[in-house]
Amino acid sequence: MSRTSRPGATLPGPAVVVIAILLGAGVTAGLDLALLWWAALIIGVVAAFAFVFWTASGRTDDGDPGDDVDEKNTTLHKTLVLPTALVLSVLGGLLAAWALDLQLQEWAAALLGGAIGAGLAFLLIHRLSAMLALSFAAVFAAGIIATAVTAAVLFFSGIAPLTTFERMLEYGTRPNSMVQIINDSTTYYLAAVAVAIGFKMKLFNIGVDGQYRLAALLAAAVGGHLVLPPVISQFVVIVTAVAVGGVWAGIAGYLKVARGVSEVIATIMLNSIATGITAYLLTEGRLAVEISTNNIGTPPIPESGWVPGIPATFLGSEREIFGLVFLAVAVGIGYWVMLNRTRFGFELRATGQSKTAAEASGVDVKKMIFLSMLFSGMVAGLVGLPQLLGSSHYYALDFPTGIGFIGIAIALLGRNHPVGIVFASLFWAFLNQAAGILPFDGIPQEIAVIAQATIVLTVVVVYEVVHRWGRRHQQQQVGRQLGRTTETTPEPATVSHGAGPEHGSAEGTEGGDGAHGTDGERGGEAK
Fold this sequence. Notes:
Strand order of the largest sheet: 1-2
CATH architecture of the largest domain: Orthogonal Bundle
Shape: globular
Number of domains: 3
């Protein structure tokens, strides 16, 4: 079929989007009368995906047409990008319908899910790059491997894997469980971003755990001893936590640039020192008061210093989501902007890729190392605030610990990307919450730990293997493209015939003025 016969050559992009959404929603609504809603939605999204692909096969996207055509005609695009886009479109539609089903009727949620999946189909077909598809494929492969390993452990332990997974899925999707997952993932996200800032500079900040605990203790003490008006009280507590976390991480940064001390050793030692300082200060007569018979903590923060929660009635739960979830969102946006839209972010990434090359380009490497550790600690200081200002309102002996080390695993799982860390945090919190029901069924709760450790390990290994293969494929594509460009470049033999001044004068002597004029013109063309 010729290119002009394709509707994509005449239909504009907005028209294709509208038709795809109507097709996905219409097919889903029609089949919902005869099939289960999820089966109808899958068929509707697949139909919309096929339509978008059909229209897109006869046109190129905006930008360099040659590049787009070359990429779409590659084997990698046909065998990986399109299947990945299809799977993501279907999953997006199913998740949207499941979330909407909490507030809407089933048929309405399925219809909207089909429309959302169709919209994702258009976006992914036109915008999903090969390297990003490789990243998703690595995550999918790691998830399958981790599930298989966990199932094998359960099977050889005499526990039915399918029954266990169904039980975890059922408990983890309850309204109250979903609220707890969101609250836990908020703190996990902040810890992972703090670690990721260091990872971008090839720095291993293991001290996030000590930084956030010391920051939470001193921020809680300031908030409990100072009675301030609303907003001002929260601002003072947040600033205190940020300052303490930044200073504590800055010590490791200074030791790194001034004395060459490894940040791994420095942060591990600072974790131990932070634990000792916390234990020393959290005693009666210093910063602590008696909270209950077996517990002591800082004076409770007055109600004017609390951050109100978000009612989760839309999830069907009577509990509240931490109000500082918006702080985590702001941190994620700021992290992305810093990395991709600022000079500091460019220098940070450049220094992380090659310190010698960055230094040769005029980047102050020592300054970047110190500032990276400083900013990492400042974000780490925020980790304990959602719990402090949203739930407990004081720092006590039972304050959550170990979140900093969880942040390391989540940063690796999310590939240090602000969006990837979101999904990694939600997944990690889901496994923690879903495993809480297992002891009641006589199943070891540590099965969640096995799944978490396995998926982190497999994601790191599989992603690295797939990413190296993708880079090699890109290099081969660039080489072939350069070869075609060289073959189509005309030889400049005729142009250079009269380029030299000596040759031009000789021709002028033999051929007279006419020949001299011709050589002069050729020399001008050559120049």
